[in-house]
Amino acid sequence: MTTEELLIPRYLIIADYPNNFFGKIGDIITPSSFESEDDFYDWELDKYPHLFKELHWTEHRDPNDLLPSTQEEYDKQNN
What we know:
Layout: H1 3-6, E1 11-13, E2 28-29, H2 37-42, E3 52-54, H3 71-78
């Protein structure tokens, strides 16, 4: 993954709610989850911390996807 890809905002679904069309608990939402990137930002998911958790760039990543220069930061956050 490139540095830019690692910094794309991601949210974890942590609770369900009526008519949820984002996915199930545990799914990760990214701008590519929407028809357009603008739709992702229009939802303002950070306003709903009881439903969505904004992920640090190291959270829920496969260590093999990281750049060697980012491996140390990943290890600090996940150990």
